[in-house]
Amino acid sequence: MNRIVTVMRAEFRALVRTRAFILLALSMPLFGLGSAWLATYLQRSDTAPRRFAVIDASGNLYDAIAQAAANRNANSSKEPGMAPFFPERISASPTAAEKLALSDRIRSKELFAFLEIPKGFGVEESNPPLRYYSATPNDTGLSRWLSELLTNTLRQRRYAALGIDGRAVASLERPIATERLGIYERGANGEIQEGAAVDMKRTAIAPMIGFYVLFILVLMGAPLLLQAVVEEKSSRISEVLLGLVEPTELMIGKLLAACAGMLLIAALYVAVGLGIANRYGWSDLVSPHALIALPICLVLALGQFGAIFLAIGAAVSSAREAQSLLMPVNLLFILPAVAVASILQNPTGPLAMAGTFIPLWSPLVVMVRVSIPPGPPAWQLITAALLCLASIAVCVWAAGRIFRIGLLLQGKPPSLRQLAQWVVGERSAK
Fold first, then answer.
1. Cβ atoms < 10 Å from Cβ of 3
2. CB contact at 8 A, 222 and 302
3. What pLDDT digit, counting tens, does each position of 120-160 carry?
4. Residue (of 323, 315, 327) closest to 420 by Cα position
5. pTM of the complete model
């Protein structure tokens, strides 16, 4: 045991001093802060005026567009990120050459777009479509605003022509609000408690953040173990180490050091995340259960995948040789990320239940389920933890068999079949 602790301390010190570890520790907070700043900056910076031309062949809609644009521009200074709109009237029946001239003005950035309202629009029962011309088809702010404005304008005019009060119709057409609530529960004191209001941010966004933080931490930590073993093997350091400690002790020490390093990064991520949540008033979205579950799920997930990556690193001589062996492992790891949307939608469904009790997937699935109130029952969490611990024991035992043979092996990398033979006791390296 003392030798395992010694290996863990040495590996942990070596890990946290590497540039890769420092970059991993700083990348996520910097990425999160940078993304938040960039989103805010882009929202506030995209306020360039949108000048557009209107070809009103109907003859009775341009004034409504101009008045609505003026009203909108008067309020644009109060709302960040709102670009002002400036319409311009064009001849009701332009020639193809005049439309080409309008297109040239768009190319020269003098205009943003031009709209063609066909003749008879708003009069006929089946309106011909509007024609919106722009060099930036993915920027739909102006086109959507024009479509909604003209739809509402025509609706109100038709109501007035029929002698119908448009406000009364709008009141009748207002959709019925539905308040989403949890189910009734009996409290600790025996009193019946009404279901609390459901917050979609708490039930969807917060679990997704917890899932991907755990996913990224395991995705960063396991390859570091493989890389460290490959480097030691290629530099012959592993031969010296095996003269001092047993292969299993060396592997367990490396695994514990990786868990400690990732827990350190997790603590940094959580601290930065809590700071951002407090800054924007989202502190109530942070689940205490998720904060408790994160380090536990991280150790359980990294304990399993880390042992597998250690075994693969010991069996190969370079990171390139490990790619073929890592493919099935990576597929197993990615599957929960593919299914996370279904688990969020139905955290008590068959997919979520199956993932809870499959050890390799259990930490990731449990991280999602714990973040969604009320969370899984205690017996499921205890069972999942015990299964994960048993899986870690199996992975460490199997990886130890591979580690013992593969760490000193040079030459052609083994196949999956050969690795399986090493695990069951066939020591032949052929």
1. 14
2. yes
3. 776 656 667 888 999 888 888 888 999 999 888 888 888 88
4. 315
5. 0.66
